[in-house]
Structure formats: C-alpha cells, structure tokens
Amino acid sequence: MFVLFNIAMVVWVLVAMGVFESVDPDTQKEALPHGTEQSAGIGVSMIVMIWLICNAVLGVLVWDTRARKRALRESTNQLSEED
Fold first, then answer.
1. Distance spanning both ends of the chain, measured CA to CA
2. In whole angstroms, what is the distance from residue 6 CA to residue 81 CA?
3. What secondary structure letter does DSSP report for 32?
C-alpha cells in the first residue's frame, strides 16, 4: 500500500504540473486571466504537502507493523528453540 500510494502521488503531481497536456503553455497563458499563472505551482505545492504528511503517517504504520512482525517471529523462534 505504501508503494502504491507513492506511485499514485507521483502521477498526481505530474498531472498537476501539466506534463501530459498537449496545450501550448504560451497560448494558455494568454487565455488565462492575470494572477492565475502561479496557480499550478500553488496546487503542486499543496499536493506535495499532502504527500509528505500522508507519507509520514503511512511510514510510521509500515515501520510499526514490520517491528511487530519481527518481534513475533523472534519470539516464535525462541519458543521453538526451547522445545
């Protein structure tokens, strides 16, 4: 889930940056009202902030569950060695 989330966020950032658009940026700037030129940068910044916050939360969850699995595995190995 952690890797899929990161892949989805990369795709979302690329789409927000307009990488996949076939529109000429100069023509698009002329058509937009003044003050909207930087809106893509603000949007990408917000997406990156969401990405970092969610990545921190998911990272802690992944780290915690791996630590639990490792502890469970070690305790199971110790029990089997005692028998």
1. 37
2. 40
3. S
Report how far residue 47's alpha carbon sits from residue 59's, in angstroms, rounded to the nearest whole number: 18
Q: Which residues contact 12 (CB under 8 A, 6 or more apart)?
A: 47
| pLDDT score of 35 | 63
27-80 tens-digit pLDDT? 666 666 666 666 767 888 899 999 999 999 998 888 888 777 777 777 777 666
Query: Tokens 């029990």 sit at which residue?
Result: 79
Question: Following DSSP, what letter does each residue of 38-74 receive, concatenated?
Answer: THHHHHHHHHHHHHHHHHHHHHHHHHHHHHHHHHHHH
**Token pair for residue 16?**
């927000």
| Structure confidence at residue 32 (pLDDT) | 66
> What is residue 6's DSSP assignment?
H
